[in-house]
Specification:
By secondary structure, the chain is α+β, with helices and mostly antiparallel strands. The chain is built from three helices and three strands. The protein has a three-stranded mixed β-sheet with strand order 1-2-3. β2 and β3 form a beta hairpin.
């Protein structure tokens, strides 16, 4: 499975099925797709701290950390962090040798546009 760009959650299901000697039609189908998007959440607060992520003094100091590389030449890697109740951080990458096929900056712009659209829908729903 190495190098096939398989989602780690599907991979875990695959390992469990193999360990139990079971076959899964769902996994056979799902693992047959070309995986061009890799995602991962980077937890910002892994142990209890005496401060809040929403504290206005702390919030600007929270760095964007981590990253997730594309697993396919024509794919993207996206890692994200949920920071408190009002911020999301994204790191978008694409393979250098895929220049011309992919554009990490354009992809990040699409993510930003979708989040803006969601915000507008939620804000409008809250006014009704």
């Amino acid at each position: 499975m190495a190098g096939q760009g398989v989602d780690r959650h599907l991979f875990a299901l695959y390992v469990v099925c193999k360990g139990l000697g079971q076959d899964s039609e769902f996994l056979k189908k799902a693992l047959g797709y070309p995986w061009t998007l890799s995602t991962s959440q980077q937890p910002i607060q892994q142990i209890p701290k005496p401060w809040s992520l929403d504290d206005p003094v702390v919030k600007p100091q929270i760095p964007l950390a981590g990253g997730f590389m594309a697993v396919a030449d024509d794919g993207y890697g996206v890692s994200y962090q949920v920071v408190g109740q009002s911020r999301l951080h994204f790191h978008v990458s694409s393979a250098k040798k895929s220049a011309g096929k992919t554009d990490a900056i354009r992809f990040a712009g699409h993510i930003q546009q979708v989040l803006s659209d969601w915000k507008a829908i939620i804000d409008e729903a809250g006014q009704n």
